[in-house]
UniProtKB/TrEMBL annotation:
TM spans (from-to): none
Family matches, as Pfam families: Ydc2-catalyt
UniProt-recorded name of the protein: Mitochondrial resolvase Ydc2 catalytic domain-containing protein
Originating species: Coemansia javaensis
Superkingdom, natural source: Eukaryota
Gene Ontology cellular component terms for the protein in this record: mitochondrion
Limits of the Mitochondrial resolvase Ydc2 catalytic domain: 57-344
A molecular function GO annotation: DNA endonuclease activity
């Protein structure tokens, strides 16, 4: 399940049922794609399974104000990559949302047949980062997600959800730094402070890491400007990364510390995402400072073998450099690359288990 990018349940029965349903649906999709490409039935199941990986993918990062999508081919060519502002502000008017999403699907998104392309959409949640409330923007994003599914399926395309947590884990963007305590932070407070002291330590570490990550991202942006023939902007000298004062943090309430830690976690993830994608663009342009960050995925997680980088156009690189909301563009391209890695593992899974007598989901 991990190799195929599937979320794992809590029980063995749930895992078996989910994996069985995935195998049956994947085998049926592989056979349909093979028939659509060859116009005849495959004599061997393995031959049809090889046609499972789609020639193209359209990856969509949901947002009513900042929606981003990337159209990527199987060999790593980025065919389209842009951010779209659907709405200027949140609204719950169904006729407005329906018209906006329908116009976006029909006029902006590339529409490809199910035999050649898969559309993947970042799965939205009503609550995230431990929040107890559901904000208006989150509800509107969920409505946009549902309308996207309805419009895309009406066009006859193949649509799949993607768990954003699995994408973060794949590219090593998760909060692994919380377990990395420096020697000076071994025991900054009394044991009686418990979880409050742990949160304060994590925030202090993330503050320093965030500042270091921003410096790395800034150097990459300067290198990208030079590779594009532009003059890098003058930047203020970066302050030393020192983190917050632990004593001052420990005086704040536990709820405040929890909220601040979640905010820092999201900011570090965004900076890491931007740094990773910028390293891909620099590698494509043949520029210096193109090495991926230390947290980047290893070679065996790269889906576009033997290509070692995505193929962008010069116009896309310039648009990315000028874009102010780079994290949205990065999320959709990272999602597409991770999805292709998972897809390449599916034919082997089908060869091993597709012919077994598994119970059908509707049986």
């Amino acid at each position: 399940m991990r190799q195929c990018g599937l979320a794992q349940g809590t029980t063995k029965a749930h895992k078996a049922a989910a994996l069985g349903a995935f195998i049956w649906s994947s085998q049926a999709l592989a056979q349909r794609r093979y028939a659509g490409q060859r116009r005849r039935a495959a004599r061997k199941a393995a031959t049809a399974h090889a046609a499972f990986v789609a020639d193209e993918v359209v990856s969509i990062d949901i947002g009513f104000r900042n929606l981003a999508f990337a159209h990527v081919s199987r060999d790593g060519r980025v065919l389209a990559w842009r951010r779209v502002e659907l709405l200027g502000e949140a609204t719950f008017e169904p006729w407005t949302l329906a018209a906006v999403v329908e116009r976006f699907v029909r006029s902006v998104l590339p529409i490809r047949p199910a035999a050649k392309c898969t559309y993947i959409i970042e799965h939205q949640r009503f609550r995230s980062q431990g929040s107890a409330s559901v904000t208006d923007s989150v509800m509107v994003n969920n409505l946009v997600e549902a309308l996207l599914y309805a419009n895309l399926r009406h066009c006859g395309v193949h649509v799949e959800p993607v768990n954003p947590t699995l994408v973060s884990v794949h590219w090593q963007l998760s909060a692994a730094w919380e377990a990395q305590a420096g020697p000076e932070e071994a025991a900054p407070a009394q044991d009686r402070l418990g979880k409050k002291a742990d949160a304060a330590q994590a925030i202090a570490r993330m503050d320093r890491l965030l500042e270091e990550q921003r410096q790395t991202t800034g150097r990459q942006q300067d290198a990208l400007a030079r590779a594009l023939g532009l003059t890098p902007p003058r930047r203020r000298s970066a302050r030393a990364a020192g983190g917050r004062d632990l004593d001052g943090l420990l005086q704040r309430g536990a709820a405040y510390l929890g909220s601040l830690r979640d905010t820092r976690r999201r900011l570090v993830k965004k900076e890491r995402s931007v740094a990773l994608v910028q390293s891909w663009i620099l590698a494509f342009l043949g520029a210096e400072s193109a090495a991926p960050p230390a947290h980047g995925a290893a070679a065996d997680t790269w889906p576009f073998s033997p290509r070692r980088h995505l193929a962008f156009s010069a116009e896309m690189a310039r648009a990315f450099y000028a874009e102010k909301k780079k994290d949205d563009l990065c999320d959709c391209i990272l999602q597409a690359a991770a999805w292709y890695h998972w897809q390449r593992a599916v034919p082997a899974i089908l060869d091993a288990y597709g012919s077994m007598q598994l119970a059908r989901p509707d049986a």
